[in-house]
Input
Amino acid sequence: MSKEVPIPRKPSRESDPGGWIESRKLPRAEKRTKRITLDVDVDLHRRIRLRCFEEDVTMTDKLLDIVAESFPPNASAPDSD
Output
């Protein structure tokens, strides 16, 4: 038996940071999620961080978009963990 804890995304720059901090309520995850951890070269990390800053997007959002584009849903594949 495992405990599921939703990990919320970081609020965007457009959201109201004061309201989010004051409420202290974490937003509910829209979907069940899994965490992926990987090690990247320092130079690659720097390039990713710089590009995300230039595009005014979080690294999480940018990388999730890239991964989702690389692995489109397949209607014939069953959902699995």
